[in-house]
Every structure is written in C-alpha cells, then in structure tokens.
User: Which sequence fits this backbone?
C-alpha cells in the first residue's frame, strides 16, 4: 500500500498554485478590465466561453485547495495517496474536457463577438487549419516536457527566493507569490496588451486558460511525482485563504456575468488583490 507517513510534506506547490489563481483572477483580470475601460469605456466578450472556464476552474479549485481540509482519511489538509491520484485524474479530465470545448467542439464560445479590425493582434474569427494527429501528439509531448521544465525550474528557483524571503523576515507563503508572479509574467503582459487593443476576449482567454493550466495540469503532474517519490503533499489552504478565494470567484463570476466589462469591476478586483497581498505580508 502507498504510504506517506514520516516523509517530508510539500506545501510550495499549493502556495504557488493558490497565488497563481489569485494573481490571475484579481490582479491580471483586474488590470485588464481597468486598462480596457479607461480607453474604451466598455468592452464585450462572449459569455459562454467565460462561464465555461469559470465553472471548470471553480470545480478544480475546490477539489484541489478546499476539499482536502474536510476529508477524514488524512488530517492536515492532505489527501491520501489514493485520494490524490483519484482527484488528479478528475482534474485532468476536467482540464482536457475544457480544452476540447475551447479548441474543437465550441470554438465560437471563445471568439470575440465584435472583432476589432484595427488591432495588431491576429483576429480570432480567422478560420484555422485543423492540425494533423502527428502535430497534435507532438504538441502534447512538448506541453508535458515544458510543464516538467517549469516545475523543475520553480523548484530550483524556490531555494533562492526562500532565502531572500527569510532574510526579509516575510512569511514563507510569499515565496509562492513571487514564483507565481514570475511564471505568469508573459501571460499577464500579453493579456494586458490585448485589453489595451480592445481585445478583452483574448485577455480573458489567456488569463482563465492560464489559471486552469496552473491548477488543472500542474497539480496533477506534481501529485503523480510526489506519490511515486513517496512524498507528502499539502493542498488544503487556510480559512482566510478560502474566504479570499471564495470572494474572488464570486466577484469575478458576477463581474463577467453580463458579457461586458466596466471599470468598477476592475477596481473591486484590484482591491481584493491588494488585500490578498497585504494579508500575506501581515497575516
């Protein structure tokens, strides 16, 4: 039987993934809404695609970060190895299902309803040639390879960041925020540029897609590695974090429920993001 007793517990993955979700939901999307609203007042997007991403993300977030606190087979916000494998498979299935919806079955849900012809970005409504099976399998292999590289780089980077955080006397959870911020920097810049060019649909696709990949793909990958290596993996977040995460999911769902973005929505999201950072530094 698989056992994790007496082995080192891992919390960096949880802290990093939680930070990534909070940064995306409140920070990146908040900035995108503000940037777009300042220039265009209102921006429109396809509601079906955003709602599909949000219900998938909410389910995976609950499975990964909240449910471990309430299972009784293992205490301390951890799953048993069998539970961890089962939850990882469920999350992978949800992520793959979302990817199929986004790229094959309902691509129109993720296309801007009013394309901006003056934008520097490639138009979403341009028909794309369907890739061959060979290209698809090769892309999947590259995705898994890159995911492994990112995980390893984050592990090595965490040592230096951890030393810096300890030297500053800051809480260790700040390590996850710094690593998540570095990893999400390219997607964040691309999403903000898209919003500035009146492509809020592209911004939301990038942001929510990154959030889903961060938790729906990375955590199962790390979970399988931890089970094979015999390491424990802490996933459950604190009550304070659950409240902030729940508030973020509620606000983002309500804010994006109309298919239009307004500047006040961005201000509220940024306020939650600042509060999240403050309560991390001053718990």
Assistant:
């Amino acid at each position: 039987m698989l056992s994790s007793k007496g082995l080192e517990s891992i919390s960096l993955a949880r802290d990093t993934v939680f930070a990534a979700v909070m940064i995306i939901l409140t920070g990146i999307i908040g900035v995108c809404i503000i940037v777009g609203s300042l220039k265009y007042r209102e921006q429109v997007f396809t509601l079906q695609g955003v709602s599909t991403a949000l219900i998938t993300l909410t389910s995976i977030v609950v499975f990964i970060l909240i449910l471990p606190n309430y299972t009784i087979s293992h205490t301390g916000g951890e799953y048993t190895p069998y539970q961890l494998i089962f939850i990882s498979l469920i999350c992978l299935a949800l992520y793959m299902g979302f990817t199929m919806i986004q790229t094959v079955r309902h691509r129109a849900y993720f296309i801007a309803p009013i394309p901006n012809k003056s934008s520097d970005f490639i138009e979403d409504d341009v028909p794309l040639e369907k890739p061959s099976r060979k290209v698809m399998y090769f892309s999947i292999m590259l995705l898994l390879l890159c995911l492994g590289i990112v995980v390893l780089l984050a592990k090595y980077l965490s040592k230096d960041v951890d030393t810096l955080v300890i030297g500053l006397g800051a809480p260790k959870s700040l390590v996850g925020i710094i690593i998540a911020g570095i990893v999400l920097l390219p997607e964040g810049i691309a999403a903000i540029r898209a919003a500035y060019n009146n492509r809020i649909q592209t911004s939301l696709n990038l942001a929510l897609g990154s959030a889903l990949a961060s938790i729906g793909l990375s955590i199962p990958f790390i979970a399988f590695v931890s089970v094979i290596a015999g390491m424990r993996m802490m996933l459950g977040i604190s009550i304070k974090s659950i409240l902030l995460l729940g508030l973020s999911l509620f606000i983002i769902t309500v804010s994006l429920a109309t298919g239009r973005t307004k500047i006040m929505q961005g201000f509220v999201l940024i306020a939650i993001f600042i509060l999240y950072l403050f309560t991390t530094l001053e718990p």
